[in-house]
Every structure is written in structure tokens, then in C-alpha cells.
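Two records follow; treat each independently.
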Amino acid sequence: MPSDQAAATGGGRPRAYITMLGRTVWALANAYHAALMERGFLPERIWIFTEERYRVPLDKAVSAVTLLSESFDISPAVETCIVEEADFLGAGMKVSAMVRRLKAEGYEVALDATPGRKPLVAGALVALASVPIDHVFYLGISKLEGASKPYLMIPFQQQRLHDFLEAARRGDECK
């Protein structure tokens, strides 16, 4: 684990970011940008899970997270995993196995639920019920019109990055 980057994240544990590519690369890129900018979550490793039907835009997603990472002076290893279409059980098992491995290696782990399709996200969240994970991010956007553009071009009052686990630990109610 690269200690220089761990030091850049506050000297704590190294960080890993797991995300899911769905219908649009924008959702993935914008949620990652929000995690970098709003939470200072600077990962050393990134995994992008997607279903077979989204294999084609996967290269764009890898390029997007690589470019955004470089703008924050980090260079995380980016890996991808293709899962079967709508296989929530298989997807959940793969994500939970990855989280278990990362946690065993000492990583602080975030799962971004924003961009994935429901079967992929639901499978991951159900499987993670028994696996300790540090963050579950979700970038909520109040108006979907004009959301297919870079994060910084969408008015901040229209978007909010949630960490569902952090909110649950604090006992926040739904707003």
C-alpha cells in the first residue's frame, strides 16, 4: 500500500472506492468527483463493477476516474469487473468478497451506489449487510434535467453527496 497517498488522506488507512457503472458514465464520474471534492476521499484503489451490457462504456468510465484522480494529484489503480445481467446474487457475492479482502488488507472502503442499476446496487447492499464497510455514498440530484454534464457545471444546490452509513451512525432522520 502506497504510504505517500495514505499520508495525503490524513495519515489513516489506505482507501478503496468501489463503484458501479450503469446507464451513464456521467453519474459515475460526478459521484466520484463529489467524493473526492466534498469528502476528501482519495482512494489508492478503485473497482468499477458493471453488467455485461455496459462493457462498451467501461473504458470511458476508467478514463473518467483516472482523469479526475490526476486532478487531485493521486493515481489509484483502477480495476474492472463484469457481472452477469441482473444477477443481483452473483454481483453481491463479488462485491462482498472484494470488500472482505480489502478490509483484511487494512483498507477503508467506500461503496458508491449512485451510478449502478438497481439489481447490481441491491445485490451489493444486501450482501454487505454482514460485511463491515466504512461508507456508502450516494449523490442525489434534485433535477435530472441537465445532469449529464460535469459535476462542477451542475448547481451545487441541486446535488448532495450522502454517506448513508455515516448518517445511520449519527442517527440522522430522513430529510
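The next record belongs to a different protein.
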Amino acid sequence: MSMQRMFAVMTAIISFLGIYGSSSLQMIRGKNIGAGFMPMVFSVILLILSVIFFLKDKDQPRLKLRMLFDRYTIPGWIYYILNFLMTFLIYLIGMIPAMAVFGVTSQYILKRQSLLWATIFTVLWVAALYIVFVVLLQIPFERGLLFD
């Protein structure tokens, strides 16, 4: 089995675990979504992408293990560090400031955009998420230890 197909099988297993775990949680809570809704959505999307990746045309380039450690993919590891930083900042200062820090830094570092465009895009993105989740769906964002 190629590395590509092994990767697809592993992500499919992870998505099945996510579906199994989220199915035991409440999907709908009154008029709001429950704790299991978003993990279920992400797990189903991951499963669909895993199947597509598994069935991908064989003529396309295969994944190789050295691609993970190639010098051109080093900025990808920065993304993992930024994800860890965002998770810590959500706990510390809340969801909105953490998304702002993550958005600006990831846009600026990974896409190498100017700081102005990264800030504009991040403000629009965070505002859209706030409107959808907090205003329309009435799902409060985490406020963090410092602002609680």
C-alpha cells in the first residue's frame, strides 16, 4: 500500500473515532447546538476527505515521508506551533483575541502577506465568526481566565 493510501486509512480511522466519540454527546441543546455537533461535523468532513484522498488518481504525485521533513515544508511546523499558541491563548485571554493573534500571525508568517492585509483579513474573519456563532446561533465564545 502506498504512503498516500496509508495516510488516508489513518485519517479515516481518526474520523471514525471522532464520529463514535461525538455520537455519545448531545447534538442539539434547546435552540443551540450541543457539545457533539461540531466534532461530528469535523469528523464527517475528515472522513469524506479521507475517502477522496484514498481514491485519488494514481497519476498524481505520491506522498513521500521525506516531504514532511523537507526544508521547504518547515513553515508547516510553524503552523503547529501557532495552533498550540492559539489553544493556550483561548484558555488565557479568550476566543476572540486568540483568533486575532492566530489570524494575524499565520497570515503574516505563512502566507507572507503584509501586516496591514493580514490584520484586515483577520478582523473581517473574526467578525464573521462572531456574528454567526455569538449573534445568530447564540453560542458564547470562551472569555478566558483573564477576562472571566
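Discussion point: The mean pLDDT is 78. How would you locate this feature using only the C-alpha cell line?
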